[in-house]
Write a structure and sequence with these properties.
alpha+beta, 30 strands, five-stranded antiparallel beta sheet, 18 helices, about 750 residues, Phosphatase 2c, domain 1, Beta-Lactamase, kinase
Length: about 750
């Protein structure tokens, strides 16, 4: 034995490295960037990496640290690299996919010069051995984890991940669904699952006997502790007690879940031999601890339920403002999607981010044409959704009146200004709106559009995907101010022709304005990802294209998204047209042309005869009312003048109403023909156009008269005035619209095969 003060020499002394390898505590060493430089054998075994895999150089976060604890890890690094120490608990996913909690103590790694070169972390498994100081920390972890989620399933799953296996081997959460108690969570340590037909499974109704400790907890509203093995933790059947004995259940706690004066259900925890632990029985301190945990869990569950209910209400409101489906459109296939913003617990902005102002629509127009629109109202929340709903309704009304795209955007710009609200500073806040409105004729493949600051759609043709080249893009709706130059305040219109069988993808910016995890938004990269994803399914159906587009750009969905996919099918379409002179004999010629065309299209005989009758009616109207001379309309200081004739209130001169007074029939037409010039003859021609789709036939008659037709009430003795009435009663739809040099009258008849 050495005396005090004598030097000690022993060839068996341990080196520092040997001490670390034999110590029954996990030791991790990381550099200043948190990259792993060393970990001892106990650390490998604790995290389940007992093999020879070399993980040196990876980030400590990549070793399974729970996402909710990433900020805690960043705090550790900041403090230790400043020369301080840090102590706390992490949830870590082991290599066998089980969760453990590590109680950690971190200190600086100093060089001999005094500079801090890294971090040394000492850790052991927390809460497994019943240390009181660790159980106090459990409350903080439960509160932090529950506060990080507003989704019900995430909330209850987080509870189980915290409590099993650190504090219990079994965890059950039973919640009331009206008057039924239903199991919502059933989690067990070591991946064990009860044999079928023994303990209740998730989704099953649970019934406890009157004297069962779980029933007593709900009846008395007090936490109950049992240490008697004769009390089964579950009562699903006769074998439940046998299963409890097989796994060695030693103790259990049941705590009522109450929030805002209402009992939501019960939380049950139990200890068994599934995992090794020093503590095998719960005591009074554990009862109080679980009672406090249950109160937090109950409040989190109640908040999650309220959140889910409000989110469902918000999404129902949003979906009610958007079309859920579209009627069949001849020659077109359509798919649409609306994707709400990411669930809000990550943003802290409240329920409002679940609704937004993104919208889309496809509007049936005259003679098989369609109006396509996509837009985005600034901001999110109920006000943005309300503006969107009113805007879409107004746009649909303007479009169905066959207004030109540029005219519609001018009207919408004024409409948006009226939807402003006080800004709190005595002014009015007017939302800005991007809007792209297109009119597509599938027969001619012509596309007319006006654009209020919206991004160009994607054009998919022959397996290639690119942005559609838009010649005009004007200011957002609602942002122009009084006094700006006229050229800056007007919306322009342009036309283009799509390739045969082309597909358009119209979308809002939420589809590409996505933020990668831990990164920033890169619109150029996102657009490239979208194009690449859509190109891979360019030859698939529109539903597949829409589904692929939604997921093509990875990242956080911070903004809602609306998209519309429209594909043309020219093989379903046919068209026949011919010019006629507006003379009485051409009525029969036009009818004959229509009859032979309908017969070649395989139209039902009765439907074809009906369509020919209606052709005769609208052609006769054209012959009778076609203007004998060009009509020019201008605004003067004296009023509106048509063909140099001043407008009078009675309508005797200038612009008068178009009616169907057939009292003089064709005699006056013949007299007008005798005095007509060559220019008049050109103006007195009309075009009869017949269109066939997959389910309908459209008839259009174009002439140079500016007056739109109207239905009038004919008297019993009147010889005319019933033509448009017949069209209105016998056609599926009919209407008229102005054209650049006159008007078009059209009607639709269903197509039935023979």
């Amino acid at each position: 034995m050495k005396r005090w003060g004598e030097a000690f020499y022993d060839d068996g002394a341990l080196s520092g490295a040997e001490v670390f390898e034999q110590a029954q505590i996990a030791v991790f060493v990381a550099d200043r960037f948190s990259h792993l430089m060393y970990w001892n054998t106990f650390a490998r075994e604790l995290l389940g990496f007992a093999d020879d895999r070399d993980l040196l150089g990876i980030s400590l976060l990549d070793m399974g640290v729970h996402e909710a604890d990433h900020e805690r890890a960043a705090q550790l690094a900041r403090r230790v690299l400043k020369g301080e120490t840090w102590e706390g608990t992490f949830a870590v996913l082991r290599s066998d996919s089980t969760w453990i909690h590590l109680r950690s103590h971190a200190v600086p790694l100093r060089h001999s010069s005094g500079s801090i070169e890294g971090i040394v972390l000492f850790a052991h498994e927390a809460m497994r051995y019943g240390r009181v100081e660790e159980q106090y920390g459990l409350l903080d972890r439960v509160g932090s984890r529950l506060a990080s989620s507003l989704e019900f399933d995430t909330t209850v799953k987080a509870v189980a991940e915290i409590l099993v296996p650190q504090f219990a081997d079994h965890c059950f959460v039973d919640l009331f669904d009206h008057d039924r108690l239903v199991r919502r969570v059933s989690v067990h340590a070591e991946g064990w699952t009860p044999p079928p037909g023994t303990w209740f499974d998730v989704g099953e109704e649970v019934r406890y006997p009157d004297r069962h400790f779980v029933y007593e907890a709900m009846r008395t509203l007090q936490t109950q502790v049992v240490t008697d093995r004769m009390h089964p933790v579950d009562v699903a059947g006769e074998r439940s007690t046998q299963v409890a004995e097989q796994v060695g259940v030693t103790s259990a706690i049941a705590a009522p879940l109450r929030a805002r004066g209402e009992t939501l259900g019960v939380l049950t925890l139990a200890l068994s031999r599934l995992s090794p632990r020093e503590k095998t029985s719960y005591g009074g301190f554990d009862r109080d601890l679980v009672g406090a945990i249950a109160s937090r869990v109950a409040l989190a569950i109640d908040n999650a339920r309220l959140f889910e209910e409000e989110r469902s209400t918000a999404l129902a409101f949003q979906n009610s403002l958007l079309p859920s489906s579209f009627p069949p459109f001849d020659g077109l296939s359509i798919a649409h999607r609306y994707v709400p913003a990411k669930p809000l617990e990550a943003h802290g902005h409240g329920i409002q981010t679940q609704v937004g102002g993104d919208f889309y629509d496809v509007i049936p127009l005259s003679a098989g044409r369609v109006g396509m629109v996509v837009g985005d109202v600034e901001g999110r929340g109920p006000h943005a959704a309300a503006v969107m709903g009113q805007l879409r309704a107004a746009l649909r009304a303007f479009a169905q009146a066959d207004r030109e795209p540029a005219d519609i955007l001018r009207e919408l710009d004024e409409w948006v200004r009226r939807l402003g609200r006080p800004d709190g500073d005595g002014g009015t806040w007017v939302p800005s709106v991007s809007c792209l409105y297109m009119v597509y004729d599938a027969w001619s493949r012509s596309l007319s559009y006006a654009n209020a600051g919206h991004q160009a759609p994607l054009l998919i043709s022959d397996g290639q995907v690119s942005e559609l080249a838009l010649e005009v893009t004007d200011t957002l709706l609602g942002v122009k101010h009084k006094g700006v130059p006229f050229d800056d305040a007007i919306y322009h219109q342009a036309d283009l022709t799509l390739p045969p069988g082309a597909t358009l993808l119209l979308y809002t910016d939420g589809l590409v304005d996505r933020r990668p995890l831990g990164g920033t938004v890169n619109l150029h990269r996102s657009l490239a990802q979208l194009v690449e994803g859509v190109r891979a399914v360019a030859d698939r159906g529109v539903e597949q294209i829409a589904e692929t587009a939604v997921t093509a750009v990875p990242g956080e969905i911070d903004d809602d998204t609306a998209l519309l996919v429209v594909r043309s099918h020219p093989e379903e379409l046919a068209i026949q047209e011919e010019w006629f002179a507006a003379e009485p004999p051409t009525v029969g010629a036009a009818r004959h042309m229509a009859s032979s065309t309908f017969r070649s299209w395989g139209m039902d005989r009765d439907q074809a005869e009906l369509a020919c009758l209606l052709v005769s009616e609208i052609v006769t109207n054209v012959v009778i009312h076609a203007t004998p001379a060009p009509v020019h309309r201008e605004f003067t200081t004296d009023g509106v003048k048509d063909s140099d004739l001043p407008f009078t209130p009675g309508g005797a001169m200038g612009l008068d109403d178009f009616d169907e007074d057939w009292s003089d029939l064709l005699e006056e037409v013949q007299e007008a023909d005798a005095s007509a010039t060559d220019e008049d003859d050109e103006r007195r021609r009309f075009l009869l156009r017949l269109r066939r789709g997959a389910s309908s036939v459209w008839v259009e008659v174009f002439d140079h008269d500016l007056r739109l037709p109207r239905i009038r009430s004919a008297g019993a003795d009147d010889e005319g005035g019933r033509g448009l009435y017949l069209v209105d009663q016998l056609a599926s739809r009919w209407g008229s619209r102005p054209t650049p040099d006159g008007k078009a009258v059209w009607f639709e008849i269903p197509l039935k095969g023979e």
